[in-house]
Amino acid sequence: MIFLVGELGPSIRVVNWLLMVPLLAAGVCSPWMTAFFAVLVLGLNRWIDVVHPEAVIRTEDFLLQVTASVLAVLTSILRVRAYTYVRHLQSSAEATREVILRPIPPGWGGVDSAARYQAADVEAQVGGDFYDVLDTPFGARVVLGDVQGKGLPAVSTAGAVTGAFREAGYHERDLDVVAWRMDNGLVRHNRLREACGDDMERFATAVVLAFPENDADVVEVVNFGHEGPLVIGPQGVRRLPEQAGAPIGMADLVGMTPAVRRVPFGRGETVLLVTDGVTEARSPTGEYFPLRTWLERLAADEPAGVAPARLLNLVLDAVLDHTHGRLTDDVALLAVRRPTDTHPDPRA
User: Fold this and answer.
1) 288 and 224, same structural domain?
2) pTM above the 0.85 mark?
3) Does the first or last residue of the chain, that is N or C, have fewer Cβ atoms within 10 Å of its Cβ?
4) Residue-number span of the structural domain to which 54 is assigned
């Protein structure tokens, strides 16, 4: 409040500061609270006029306060509506994420597993990366992959692939049949999208692993053109066999789905599956994240092995540190190992 003395006598200039009260309230308070502060400011103006009759408060200043107060209330209303709308969108995105990236309970399927997902667009919360762990009559089966493209079409495609995997992976004994049904499911999804006017034929790279209940020393691998998973254990780091198999949705181009490979897999080993958001993460100077080299150092420091959850935390922290927290692509990680001790079967 500033007192000024002029030819017309003392005047009280309070407008500039009083205008800040409802305007600040509009940014942090509810519309009703903003209206309360607006009325308080207008009342204070009138109170000064009564208590200090010698004061000269210009009419245009009072009208400016009224206008600012009304605008503050309207701003508060629009802010609350926008916040409610954004929360609704976030809830919808979270629901979509729950469908594609379902929570995986500890010990699910008789294996120790952990999964992490971090979207490059934090607000979107979900993209074209996908993973899942199935508890089936034939042992645990897992998948991790990445859909070509971005946006809602990629999310829709990821949903089609995971849906086919969940259905076929549970009911089909042979992993090659699971692979065929996943490919066929995406082909039919693309046909539907084309009928709806989307001419883009989408595909997905992925890795499917099966842990047979009747053979605890092997893992079955189907690689749909994805980078081969890395295994970390007492013997160091090794890569599971990579194949030049066609991505999901493109088996017709080569006449077959990728073959099923059976490879040794010990109980002390953990297999790490990642999307290219990890392997192609770049530092500010343009260097790719050296995942295998980093894992080899970790294996040397911890020869007894690393639990899946801790391994993913360490990898994700290393990626964020390498990129200085600036991810340019979605990141999905899945780590799985056979139990190192006895756990109750969650199906019992």
Assistant:
1) yes
2) no
3) C
4) 2-92
